[in-house]
Amino acid sequence: MANPNEGAAHKTPAYAWPCLFASLFIAVTLVWAWQWMPGVTAGTGTKWFLINNPDIASMVGFNMGELKAAGDQALGQWFGQNLGRAIGTVMGQTMGLVPIGAIIMAFPTTFLVQKVGPKWASVIGVCIALVATAICAVCCTTSWMGYMVGRFIFGLALACTIVAGPTCVSIWFPGATRGRAMAIWSTWAPIGIFTVNMWGGNVLDLAGGNIATLQWIWFGCMLVAGLVFFFVFREPRGDEVSEVSPERKRLRDVLQFFKSRQLWSLIILFAIFNYMNYAFSQYLKTWLAMDVASGGMGWEAGPAGLVGGLLCACGILGPIGGWIMDKLSRDKKWIAPLLGIISLTICMVLSFRANTPIFALYALFFCIGNMFLNGCCRPMVPTYVFKGGATAVAFGLSFLTCGQYLGQIPTSYAFSAGTAMGMSYSDIMMYFFVPVGIVGIIFGFLMKPSKPKGEIAEGGAPAQGGGKPE
Questions:
Q1: In this predicted structure, what is the pLDDT of residue 414?
Q2: Same structural domain for residues 161 and 261?
Q3: How far apart are CA 337 and CA 110, in angstroms?
């Protein structure tokens, strides 16, 4: 299908915005179902599983009958001695299988987009999420293995959303507004994590404290979002089509757009960003509440949770970064993610130091880094491969998704290795994270377009190998 707007100045169709927010609504509801346990506190969720799921109780040696018979003091003593270990088991398994499923499903989603289009790929993702959440709800009180299967399947659904959702956005928005539009979509995780942390406990209270009922509430939210998306979203028609054609080309026909140093530098940069950023999302609130003698800030749990949660949700500033990127010419857009990785690396140098002025600087650079990296990395994919249409964008986003979760996996191991060697949090950042940030800065500079040699097709590959970004 030829793109009637190719080479012309593009305007953003008014209907593009409802399509964007319908897709974003799906993604946010999936985050609620994904991040519910940290959102209602791991201790609350773990205690419920210990009392209601015989498998997990057996795994950690919890016998409610014996402890009740021994008296309330014995029960409290058991929790005091063993709850931390139980939280590690339940939290690790509940959260750990989701990214594994997402990595596995990232590339198959490209084939879904190529075969049925981004709309139906998104709908399939919602359906998979509904099946996964129903399995979790049914198995909450019966089978821990069944519950884990549900969480793994949920990871498959998450990958469909992360790949198909931005593809839906890219086919509607022209280059002049695509940055801010895809940056708005990229706030899905910060919005979802922040909101579930803010009122996840209230939703659990609404469910009568029952985790199984809570799963059905998330099921209902995702069902509503899926129906809204199904009836609101459609593919652009006629002069609504952006530079990213909705045409679904064969995968082998778009491989030429992946012979690009700039694109692969972006993918590696995005993986490094997630490796670095995941450290803060996991350990920031803990460090703020850690006593000063142990190297923390010594805050009360409430302020530590609020400030830590707000900072970890600063990816919501991404649309500002996307708007700034939209103002840059095509050959200068790479500067936006470069500024982000530089800011985040400076933040890492300053991080986890028990000094209030330094903490304020750390927070500033952390927000700037997230503003550019969360807001600009996904929009850069169609900037590089838009000539390949929806298939090429989905394929590029699949690589980006793999980078996202592969980047997050080593973070916990780096902290574990550092603490085993007796390092403070700030030392761990200096030894295990700052050098990686410097590598990320190098890849940021490698995103700079090469000077064209001869005739090069815009957005595609030159006649004699290589590639050139938009």
A1: 84
A2: no
A3: 24
Asked if residues 410 and 429 have their Cβ atoms less than 8 Å apart, the reply is no
| CB proximity list for 237: less than 8 A, separation 6 or greater | none
Structure tokens belonging to residue 116: 């049925």
What is the C-alpha separation between 95 and 155, in angstroms, rounded?
10
Taking residue 323's Cβ as centre, other Cβ atoms within 10 Å add up to: 16
391-411 residues labelled b (16+ CB within 10 A) or e (exposed): bbbbbbbbbbbbbbbebbeeb
Q: What is the dihedral of CA 380, 383, 385, 389, to 10 degrees?
A: 110
Cβ 43 vs Cβ 22: under 8 Å: no
What does the pLDDT read at residue 237?
85
Say yes or no: 60 and 21 in one domain: yes
> Which of 126, 186, 108 minimizes the C-alpha distance to 395?
108
Amino acid at residue number 182: M
Distance CA 334, CA 184 (A): 19
- Note the pLDDT of residue 67: 66
Nearest partner of 172 among 238, 122, 107, judged by Cα: 238
- Examine residue 7 and state whether it is found in any structural domain, yes or no: no
- In whole angstroms, what is the distance from residue 191 CA to residue 194 CA? 5
The pLDDT value recorded for residue 344 is 95
Last residue of a domain, one of 226, 248, 270: 248
Q: What are phi and psi of 69, to 5 degrees?
A: -65, -30
Predicted pLDDT of residue 341:
96
Residue with tokens 């990232």: 106
CATH code of the domain containing 228: 1.20.1250.20
Residue 117 CB contacts under 8 Å (≥ 6 apart), including other chains: 235, 246, 248, 390
Residue 6 confidence (pLDDT)? 40
- Number of domains making up the chain: 2
Which H helix or E strand runs over 385? helix 356-385
Domain that holds residue 364: 249-450+458-470
Nearest Cα residue to 228 out of 384, 27, 420? 27
Per 3-state DSSP, the chain is made up of helix, strand and coil in percentages (nearest 5) of: 80, 0, 20
Looking at the fold, whether 211 and 224 belong to one and the same domain comes out as yes
In this prediction the pTM is 0.80
Q: For residues 445 and 261, give the distance between their C-alpha atoms in angstroms, rounded to a whole number.
A: 11
- Tell me the DSSP string of 225-238: HHHHHHHH-----G
pLDDT lower than 50: segments of the chain: 1-9, 453-470
* DSSP one-letter string for 412-449: HHHHHHHHHTT--HHHHIIIIIHHHHHHHHHHHHHTSP
Confidence (pLDDT) at 302: 76
